[in-house]
Amino acid sequence: MSGRTRARACPERTCVGCRERAAKADLLRIVAIKGECAPDPRGTLPGRGAYVHPALVCLDQAVRRRAFTRALRAPGALDTKALRRYVERTTVAEQATR
Asked: I need a surface site. Which of 11, 39, 63, 69 has the fewest CB within 10 A?
């Protein structure tokens, strides 16, 4: 036996907010569209992406550290209002289903 397992490796990404590694499926992909951060929950939008936990704590840390601008290689500051609304809605909906 070669020692290989049949289980496939799960892709990991680093959250730009808390800098912790997590499974790609547990993180929210963010892309820059026309000067603002847009959520990409399906991961299909074109362009460079950054990953963040879908929690306000990580989002606030990323905004405070200007991590989106750096990770997405944007020339200027990015608007994060739409992203914040999306994260707030998903966390409220997630808590309601529990």
From this structure: 11
